[in-house]
Amino acid sequence: MSPAAARIRPRDPMLVASEQGGGTAATVAAPDGATVAAPDGATGVTTVEIWTDGGCKPNPGPGGWGVLLVSGGQEKALTGAEPATTNNRMELTAAAAALEALTRPCRVVVHTDSEYVRNGITRWSTGWVRKGWRTSGGDPVKNMDLWRRLLDAAGRHQVEWRWVRGHSGDVMNERVDVLATEARVRMERG
């Protein structure tokens, strides 16, 4: 299994995804080839809820990211890690990887504890693009490669971005925080 693929733990029934279903469905593809089918609703557009997190220890330093994709009562976890990165890069990577994992256009609700990601995608990115990837102060946008990746991935979907306060008891946010930390630790241990 690749480092970016989710590890499914049988003791955690919330991470075990059923492959059963009928009719047309969107699928979520993981780097290891596993998929989660998401049955269409009455509108014909699949809704997928996504929780993302990323972080480093120290920052900058080794980092990891985690994602949970939930649709039609099924769930898929994705993770990844990098040896030298920043918190912001891991947060952006998590969001981009989550949207890229969707194999067809969907209605998506992305939950993130990163105000940098939420504000960047909903408030700042239009100005950055208009100004040739420059900030309001004229400086080059940091992490432009990942912002472009995220905008491209989001462009295929109807995305609603929701900010959730980190470490405040939101169960799904806590789970992706654990996934991100575990991915970093696995990478560090080799």
Give the helices and strands, then pairings.
Blueprint lengths: L24 E5 L5 E5 L7 E10 L4 E11 L2 E12 L1 H14 L6 E6 L2 H16 L13 H11 L3 E6 L7 H19 L1
Parallel strand pairs: 3-6, 6-7
Antiparallel strand pairs: 1-2, 3-4, 4-5
Protein described:
- Residues 1-39 have low confidence and may be disordered.
- The strands form 2 sheets. A 5-stranded mixed β-sheet has the order 5-4-3-6-7. It has a two-stranded antiparallel ribbon with strand order 1-2.
- The chain has a single domain, classed as Ribonuclease H-like superfamily/Ribonuclease H (Nucleotidyltransferase, domain 5, 2-Layer Sandwich).
- It contains 4 helices and 7 strands, in the order E-E-E-E-E-H-E-H-H-E-H.
- With 190 residues, it is of the alpha/beta class.
- The chain is globular and about 40 Å long.
- Helix 1 packs parallel to helix 3.
- A hairpin with a 2-residue loop joins strand 4 (61-71) and strand 5 (74-85).
What separation lies between the terminal Cα atoms? 14 Å
Strand content: 25-35%
Shape: globular
What is the number of domains?
1
Mean pLDDT over the full residue set: 83
Global structural class:
alpha/beta
Order of helices and strands: EEEEEHEHHEH
Radius of gyration: 16 Å
**From the 3D coordinates, which CATH architecture would you assign?**
2-Layer Sandwich
CATH topology: Nucleotidyltransferase, domain 5
Which stretches of 5+ consecutive residues score pLDDT under 50? 1-39
Number of strands: 7
What summary fits the major beta sheet?
A: 5 strands, mixed
CATH class: Alpha Beta
Lateral arrangement of strands in the main beta sheet: 5-4-3-6-7
Helicity, in percent? 25-40%
The CATH homology group name: Ribonuclease H-like superfamily/Ribonuclease H
Number of continuous helical runs: 4
